[in-house]
Amino acid sequence: MKKIYFDYAATSPVDPRVIKAMLPYFSEKFGNPMSLHGFGQEAKLALEKSRKEIADFIGAEIKEIIFTGSATESNNSVLKGLAQANKEKGRHIIISQIEHPCVRESAKWLEKQGYQITRLPVDKYGLLNPRDLENAIKKDTILVSLIHASNEIGTIQPVKELGAACRQKGVLFHTDAVQSFGKIPIDVNKMNIDLLSASSHKIYGPKGVACLYIRKGIKIEPLLHGGGQESGLRSSTSNVPGIVGFAEAVRIAKKDMKKENLRLFRLSQKLIKGLLKIEGSHLNGHPQKKLPNINNFWFDFIEGESLVMQLDLEGIAASTGSACSSVTLEPSHVLMALGLKHQEAHGSLRISLGRWSKESEINYLIRVLPQIVENLRKISPFKTSFKFD
Ligand SMILES: *Cc1c(COP(=O)(O)O)cnc(C)c1O
Q1: Atom of ligand 1 nearest to the CA of 149
Q2: Residue 372 CA, ligand 1 centroid: distance in Å
Q3: pLDDT tens per residue, range 299-336
Q4: Are residues 97 and 199 in the same domain?
Q5: Fewest 10 Å CB contacts: which of 149, 177, 250, 383?
């Protein structure tokens, strides 16, 4: 049976070019960049070259990029580290209702420590309103952290306007750009961004490596104390092979972005058109202001989990809600924030495309899904009296 991967928003395979770039740094170029000898200096050179590649990509200065072990770590560092560094200034932080769990849970933890958290609502497409943000900023607000593009529905926020609102009020602005980084252009200066998180494994790089952009002059308390690597902000021996791979993934993404976006946009349009022909099917998120690769649907009377399992039997890997919350069986907080009912949010299916997605795979999904939906509806406990025909 052929296997089709439609879960690129959860993670992506490592590009063979990335593996090739990484390999020497596991073996002959294995040095510790903190060492003064030749091995160390060779590793340090690779580390700093990688930092420059990533800084240039988002219009940052080289020193403004620090490497971390995951975007979860980057986001934890921003929320907890800034809260700690600014606790004399204020104890109010603003996030949104549609953040990734690592921002949500960090905020929840800070709440228990006595911080006050405002969670901004979104409209039915998942969009934040910059006016709502302006109104929510208070004298003691120390940080605004808003996701750039949703990992569940793909909706892209008006980050430039949100950042401008923060700047006007003198509040630091962080964005979780894990899904948008490497997919759409980002310029931290033009977009008024003070801090930004990105992850390697969502853009065909290795897992366990990520970065955090911190605008010059911003003070942040590190999560990890130790040898003082990464300007003292993230002690640990540098993951040089991982970082080299991350930078190579960025180089490829930059080179191919325009063409790849158009290709994914066309595939997604075909997919959406095909799946919305199924009766009782709906698109979640904004139809235009979205990433070209993430598509989220819901189907009346069906549970997303059953849908994902049936698709798996057909060799198709998709997801319901986000990969991180699918074990809890709670409906997605993102879909609930759009105003979906509990049952509707449970019927969601995320089809996320990527570098190796092909038109034939979209055609196959469009062919097999109607029958799966029909079969599941026959046994659906939700379907009581309603009939489509
Ligand atoms: C995947 C993801 C993360 C977590 O990144 P890791 O590097 O896997 O920890 C954070 N935010 C968003 C939006 C994501 O999609």
Answers
A1: 13
A2: 30
A3: 999 989 999 999 999 999 999 964 445 556 678 899 99
A4: yes
A5: 383
